[in-house]
Design a protein that fits this description.
Helix 7 packs antiparallel against helix 8 and helix 11 packs across helix 12. This protein starts with 8 loop residues before the first helix and ends with a helix. The longest helix is centred in the C-terminal third of the chain and has 55 residues. With about 280 residues, the chain is mostly helical. It is about 70% helix and about 0% strand.
Length: about 280
């Protein structure tokens, strides 16, 4: 009986099979596609909001109608340009957005950019925390599901991935707040930090508005952990949504990579056998 050993395809005179490019879909491809979809998504949302706000008239009349005399209301409408043709308003609106001019609020005449600066940092902080949660939860569970393919644990993890992705964020947030904030009392149920911490962080020179980053810059670890205690429930509620996507992507890609590796090894053995 002749024993065969695995030999590289070059030694057997057979080229190595090319790796398949289809199937599975990489995590990087998914992230790139999602990033590119931001542009048309924003354009569609901006267009919908613009025209929906014009269905019942102009925004100034909708917000201040009945609280201002008719002549003052018309002056405000003319100053804002809402008495011009709708398409001219639309394209001018898009041009202002592209140049970073988001206008001013109707109620208190405050620049929208100031509001974004004030509240946008909180949204960015939440997004960063949510991505960290998604990576910590989704990638390891995806690896476990791929390793335990078609077994009971794999089936359970796939169900969890569907639940993570399908559960509305607001419902997950309320449930987490009820259990861990109200019943168990482990975490705060509101705010970004305690009042003392917020005052200390806002008084820093050139604060970023991202509390945990400002706390690290100042070396105040008590403030850092206070911020994280307030952020943990919102981060989990939002992060589990993306964790379900990561779990499925990691599982699919690991299984696909394993199958391709097995096929290449089998082809090498067959080629070596044929050459012998």
């Amino acid at each position: 009986m002749t024993a065969f050993t695995e030999a590289p395809p070059e030694a057997a005179g057979v080229p190595e099979p090319a790796a398949k490019t289809k199937g599975g879909g990489g995590l990087l491809t998914y992230l790139v596609i999602r990033f590119l979809l931001i542009i048309p998504t924003i354009l569609i949302l901006v267009t919908m909001v613009f025209f929906l706000m014009r269905i019942t008239g102009d925004p100034i009349t909708a917000a201040l109608g009945g609280r201002l005399p008719a002549d003052q209301l018309q002056i405000r409408i003319h100053e804002a340009g809402y008495d011009r043709p709708i398409m001219i308003q639309y394209f001018e609106y898009l041009g202002q957005l592209l140049t970073g001019n988001f206008g001013r609020t109707i109620s208190d005449n405050r620049a929208v950019t100031d509001m974004l600066t004030t509240f946008g940092s909180a949204t960015l902080e939440l997004a960063i925390n949510a991505v960290i949660v998604a990576l910590i939860v989704g990638i390891p569970l995806g690896m476990i599901a791929a390793h335990r393919r078609d077994k009971a644990s794999d089936a359970v993890l796939r169900v969890f991935a569907i639940l993570f992705y399908a559960t509305p964020v607001f419902f997950a947030g309320l449930l987490l707040k009820l259990v861990f904030g109200v019943w168990l009392g482990w975490t705060p149920i509101a705010g970004r930090a305690t009042t003392t911490t917020e005052l200390a962080l806002t008084q820093l020179s050139a604060p970023t508005g991202i509390y945990w980053l400002d706390a690290l810059r100042s070396g105040n670890m008590d403030a850092f952990w206070d911020v994280e205690r307030h952020a943990i429930l919102p981060a989990i509620a939002l992060g589990l949504l993306t964790a379900g996507v990561f779990l499925r992507l990691v599982r699919t890609n690991l299984i696909g990579t394993s199958a391709r590796t097995t096929s290449r090894r089998a082809a090498r053995v067959v080629s070596a056998s044929s050459a012998s």
